[in-house]
Design brief:
617 residues; alpha+beta; seven-stranded mixed β-sheet; six-stranded antiparallel β-sheet; 21 helices; D-ribulokinase activity; FGGY_RbtK-like; FGGY carbohydrate kinase domain-containing protein; kinase; FGGY_N
Length: 617
Amino acid sequence: MSGLRRGWSDTTPLLDQRHRSLSNSHTKRRPYSVILEMTSAVNDATPSRSGPVFLGVDVGTGSARAGLFDESGKLLGSASSPIQIWKEGDCVEQSSTDIWHAICAAVKSACSLAKVAGQEVTSVGFAATCSLVAVDSDGSPVSVSWNGDSRRNIIVWMDHRAVKQAEKINSCNSPVLQYCGGAVSPEMQPPKLLWVKENLQESWSMVFRWMDLSDWLSYRATGDDTRSLCTTVCKWTYLGHAHMQQKNEKDQDMEACGWDDDFWEEIGLSDLVDGHHAKIGRSVAFPGHPLGSGLIPTAAKELGLAEGTPVGTSLIDAHAGGVGVMASVPELASEAKEDDEEAICGRMVLVCGTSTCHMAVSQSKLFIPGVWGPYWSAMVPEFWLTEGGQSATGALLDSIIENHVASHSLANRAASRNISVFELLNSILESMTHEKKSSFLAALTEDVHVLPDFHGNRSPMADPKAKGIICGLTLDTSEQQLALLYLATLQGIAYGTRHIVEHCNAHGHKIDTLLACGGLAKNPLFLQQHADIIGCPIILPRENESVLLGAAILGAVAAKKYSSLIDAMKALNAAGQVIHPSKDLKVKKYHDAKYSIFRGLYEQQVSQRSLMAQALS
């Protein structure tokens, strides 16, 4: 799962710099008061109110965002509000109360900026990181923290406290594991649930509902406890294809039939089976299915919207990005490919934020070792989803830059020029290319190689114990050296994506086109390196806020403005710029060589790990 960054020009790390000197607990704090840090965007033209207005809400790792779209998928206005986060070692936690307050602030601000009255909003859709929420029978927060702080009732997606529990679950070799690449990740919910049961017995006994964050948001808004096929299939081992015989509209909101009770009993969580799986989901529906009677009065008042406004079943944020971009095809390409279903199966969506998710769909199920899925209807209804991922991409770039000696001076220079640190680094690299008379920019890193597994390898090695490697360091601490390290890290991330694409294609996919969205997709160097390294064109959406658009599409479908999710995608997705790979054969040869080194770095690490384990045995 992925927390999406606000933009590539936003270099704020996961832990806010302003608070680092105030606390050693690595806590990002924000009061619940009216004083909120708001970032916003609104189109210059005053929108017409003659048509529907769709609201999308997205909760990423660091902020809650809201965006309003018209019936052509054009962004009318958006706003964001920061959210609180606690990070202590492998434990990363948040507060559902804080997140809801941030959402309400963002929605009201977005409506104000877009000059849209709350009563004019046609529908609402929610997307969020795949974080785990704990609430009691009254809906109040239950602590998942060692210190018992009840505010901290969310285990964030990137939390790695449950590595041992994931290993225990994987040792069971349950049949459900074949539908998540052969093994659960510590970022999925079963290991986290097992960790809470083993370590926080009081909390475990108090929890009435365990929910994915996006499902909790929909529940908080509507009072309807129906879960999404997206969240349950991708993060809870729910077998979505159990719905294949019950696909009619009347059957979409139904008692869950895809839980494997033997699995939960085998891993020591049989109590979650009780009450027809009441704590983890008795009812599961397709994304975009209308929930309850729409917004309940309390939620409508808090959001500044009309009671009864339709709300669609939610998506994980990265998957919402997929829905918001996957049908974005340039006009010439759309004319050339009449078979939409075949065309969509040749694309992979990169949702690039704090982490990167790699999503491709197929008409038949493809079992790919080390890659999550196949997930039936987890993103696009009636298609099988393959989901690769890199656990730290935007977060890794932040870490590389901020932990370098030259970071402070670089940030000051960027601020004085009113540009981002990334823009300044890109400019430095361009200058270095001319100064060194390099034939192309990428060649500057011939002596620097990065394995980007600083937070483990999600795909395709499925190795949470993997570590990052930087090869080629010197005593140089200049801004130029930081620029090289930044470039090598960008390339390492792109080589990781190439590895995922090649691995998927070797197991039945036919991916030949990439679509990119999220904060990092606004960095032209990031995009060009990916295009050159993977050898595929990259299509960008017309609207930057693809995750918000994907969330908004869920509400539009729930409001019956479109007959299906795919029809809504076709109507509201639109392509923008296309990034083509370099035609210079020297560039290809160079990246092929570096990719070989990249693959070797992981192999060396595994060998070294084995050698040291033997030495300590």
